[in-house]
């Protein structure tokens, strides 16, 4: 390969790094900002002179799509035409999903992305702002359309997705501007995915590493090897079992096989691998330490699994930057994902912080 049981009660902790002061972990007094044209300066995290300073933000650099949903009883066979029971267009994309999840969990969240100058772009901007995300670093590009995806939702909540990259892949140019890099370096944590060019992810990961900012790379998106240069600048790699198999070329059907595949990731420089196992829960592998397992928190009814992985990753990131233990991070993420699958759509299903905390207290 050339590139690649219930935890302790939910309590506040403080986290101090070389670059960021300890964070007040009560629910932040976070208010959304109005959408505005991208500026090449770092906006203040306080909205007025009397507001409490917000903690260093969750910064998501990634994709934004218009998700075209069709609900079907089954996938069509080759050459077959079938009818959908319903259809609608909703805001989505792995990056936008994770950003809105951060905002809905009441953590200050910035999104750095590209959309087209079209109706789908406006749909996404509105959804981000509605989810409490600061959109100063979302740039409209006129040459290409907003990215979109066709989501085929089957009975039982399972889905199949086809992505058209659009502005996500063609709207970045060769390098990020100073403003984008500045907000990355000022973050508390950075989230990346693989629905934008690898070269952009590498630039972001290097900038974050230079500033001592932790980076989580969600392995979902591009069906291709992850560049070794990117892996070496990522703190946590977060694949599901099929993505882990694709990245390593190794089977991942059993826990032993997953452990061996994770060991290959460690050899490439990734210290921690957070594997999402769907109905089997999740496992955090830290190099040289015992894995930490987290079972699912059962949902009352599974309506749509779209966005569940993004919810899990973003919720883990929020808990991490708030200073929770790794076991608490996993449990918080599992609760958020459980709430996500009970609502249709990706961004519409992102849970509020209170709902997650209420669920954790009830189990």
UniProtKB/TrEMBL annotation:
This is Ribokinase. Pathway: Carbohydrate metabolism; D-ribose degradation; D-ribose 5-phosphate from beta-D-ribopyranose: step 2/2. Residues 1-50 are annotated as: Disordered. Catalyzes the phosphorylation of ribose at O-5 in a reaction requiring ATP and magnesium. The resulting D-ribose-5-phosphate can then be used either for sythesis of nucleotides, histidine, and tryptophan, or as a component of the pentose phosphate pathway. Its main location: cytoplasm. One of its GO terms (biological process) is D-ribose catabolic process. The active site is at 310 (proton acceptor). It catalyses: D-ribose + ATP = D-ribose 5-phosphate + ADP + H(+). Belongs to the carbohydrate kinase PfkB family. Ribokinase subfamily. Belongs to the carbohydrate kinase pfkB family. Requires a divalent cation, most likely magnesium in vivo, as an electrophilic catalyst to aid phosphoryl group transfer. It is the chelate of the metal and the nucleotide that is the actual substrate. It comes from the Eukaryota. It comes from Helianthus annuus (Common sunflower). Keywords: ATP-binding, Carbohydrate metabolism, Cytoplasm, Kinase, Magnesium, Metal-binding, Nucleotide-binding, Nucleus, Potassium, Transferase. Residues 1-36 have a biased composition (Polar residues). ATP binds at residues 240, 276-281, 309-310. One of its GO terms (molecular function) is metal ion binding. Its cofactor is Mg(2+).
